[in-house]
Task: inverse folding
C-alpha cells in the first residue's frame, strides 16, 4: 500500500469530520485551514516525543572543522541544520580515529572555567551543546582544518506545504492512515466540540488496558534501539 499524499491526508481528515473533500491544498479556507493546522500539529507531536526517537527520522550529520574555531552553529550546518536531537554516542573525528565524548553544559563549564581559547588546540575529544551551538573542547588548527566530525542525529519532521499536495510526509505507512489521520481528526473534532473525538482518541492512545493505540504500535516498530525512554519510578 502506497503512502498517502498530503492531499489524501487532508481529505481523509475532512471526511472523518463530515466535511466535503477538496481538489487541492493551495486554496484552503475556513475549517479546511483548521484541518491543515491540526495535521501539522499532529505530525509535530508524533515526531518530537522526547521519550522516543524514531528511526525514520535518523540522519547523518557532519561538522567540517575550521582553523581557529571550536564552536559551530547548528542551524548553519549543511548536514545537521534540521537537528532535533543528536546521538551523543556517535560523534567521531574519523581522520584521527578519535571518539568525541559528550559532556553536559554544567560539566563542560566546570572543566573549562576559563574557556578553551588560547589554551587547548587540536582534535576535539569532548563536546557539549548549548545556545544553538556544538561546542568542542579544543580549537582546530591547520592540521584539523577541513577534517570532518561525523555524528548521527534525529531530524525535525518535514512539514507539509500547500504548494506540494502530491508529496508524502515522514510518517511511514500505514501509520499515516492509522495514526496521523486519526490524531488530526481527534484534534479537529475536539476543536469543534464534537463528541466523536473520543473515537479517534481511542484509536491513537488505546484504552490503557486491552486496546493498544496506533501511537504505541508506531513506537514499538520504529523506536531507535539505542535510546531508551525516560523512566519515572513511583514508590
Result:
Amino acid at each position: 500500500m502506497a503512502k498517502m499524499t498530503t492531499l489524501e491526508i487532508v481529505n481523509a481528515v475532512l471526511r472523518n469530520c463530515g466535511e466535503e473533500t477538496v481538489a487541492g491544498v493551495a486554496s484552503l479556507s475556513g475549517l479546511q485551514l483548521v484541518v491543515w493546522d491540526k495535521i501539522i500539529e499532529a505530525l509535530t507531536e508524533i515526531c518530537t516525543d522526547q521519550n522516543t526517537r524514531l528511526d525514520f527520522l535518523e540522519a547523518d550529520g557532519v561538522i567540517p572543522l575550521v582553523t581557529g574555531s571550536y564552536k559551530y552553529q547548528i542551524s548553519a550546518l549543511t548536514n545537521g541544520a534540521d537537528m532535533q536531537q543528536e546521538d551523543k554516542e556517535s560523534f567521531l573525528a574519523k581522520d584521527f580515529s578519535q571518539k568525541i565524548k559528550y559532556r553536559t553544559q554544567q560539566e563542560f563549564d566546570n572543566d573549562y572555567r576559563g574557556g578553551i581559547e588560547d589554551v587547548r588546540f587540536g582534535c576535539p575529544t569532548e563536546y557539549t551543546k548549548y545556545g544553538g551551538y556544538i561546542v568542542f573542547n579544543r580549537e582546530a588548527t591547520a592540521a584539523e582544518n577541513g577534517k570532518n566530525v561525523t555524528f548521527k542525529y534525529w531530524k525535525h519532521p518535514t512539514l507539509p506545504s500547500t504548494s506540494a499536495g502530491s508529496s508524502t510526509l515522514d510518517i511511514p505507512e500505514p501509520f499515516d492512515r492509522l495514526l496521523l489521520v486519526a490524531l488530526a481528526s481527534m484534534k479537529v473534532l475536539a476543536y469543534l466540540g464534537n463528541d466523536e473525538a473520543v473515537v479517534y482518541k481511542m484509536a491513537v492512545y488505546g484504552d490503557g488496558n486491552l486496546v493498544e493505540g496506533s501511537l504505541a504500535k508506531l513506537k514499538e516498530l520504529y523506536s531507535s534501539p539505542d535510546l531508551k525512554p525516560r523512566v519515572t519510578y513511583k514508590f
Observations:
- Residues 227-235 have pLDDT under 50 and may be disordered.
- The longest strand covers residues 148-155.
- The first helix runs from residue 6 to 16.
